[in-house]
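Troubleshooting: if your tokenizer reports a length mismatch, compare your output against this known-good record of 296 residues.
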Amino acid sequence: MRALCWHGKGDVRVDTVPDPKIQHPRDAIIKITCCAICGSDLHLLDGYQPTMESGDILGHENMGEVIELGSDVTNLKIGDRVVVPFTISCGDCWFCKQGMYSCCDTTNPNAEIARKAMGHSPAGLFGFSHMLGGYSGGQAEYLRVPMADIGPIKVPDSVSDEQALFLSDIFPTGYMAAENAQIQPGDTVAIWGCGPVGQFAIRSALMMGAGRVIAIDEVAERLAMAEAGEPKRLTSPRPTSMTNSCHAPPTEALIVASTPSDARLRATAPLTLYSIRPRQRCISPPIESMCCGKRL
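Known-good structure output:
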């Protein structure tokens, strides 16, 4: 198959690599139909993530069609369309039992390396270095999905790939940021940074009942995208009004929520890939039936 492979800092190529195979009864193989480039992939491209090896397949925002199943996977069938979350979770350890799937302590075979580098180890992650499991990513024609009875989320025919794909990572990240800000109906919410996380945080804040959302960025195209959501409740200062203190990295966002009654400020910043919450609240129909209680 063809796959996007890392070969060093600033060196990413499309290579021909072996097709993935079932290695465990809980595995599935999916044919990738849609994938995305995450902002955190830039950390790999720029050489900031240790324990990458030449030939590693990138990609952790993936979805596709199930084409092969291990004998223990009974909740999926051949032909199912599924979104695959970034994290790989067993469903059986203490963390998974508590709903903290991204902290699964059984799926990263190199957890000790991660602990030494970061202070703790998350679950195994697709396409994100060997200290986080060494799992191949999905910017490829096919993907092996370990623990396929736990992670993949079935997608109904009424939802397109382009609509569902963001459930793999970026939508839950923005949603969790808004959730952590404890937004109350009528709140005024300011969001610094209107990259991908910021865009989803804006829409999540509006869904949570924010009375007004102020989107702050210096890139006109980002502000235009933000305004396209629900302009009646969204304000975006012009780029010329930006100051250096308002800058946010391209894919990050800072949210500040203020309740009119007491003017308290609550801030949250979804600045790391570990801000992905294993279980999200329901988003909105028809997405509600897909992600409520799922592993995002």
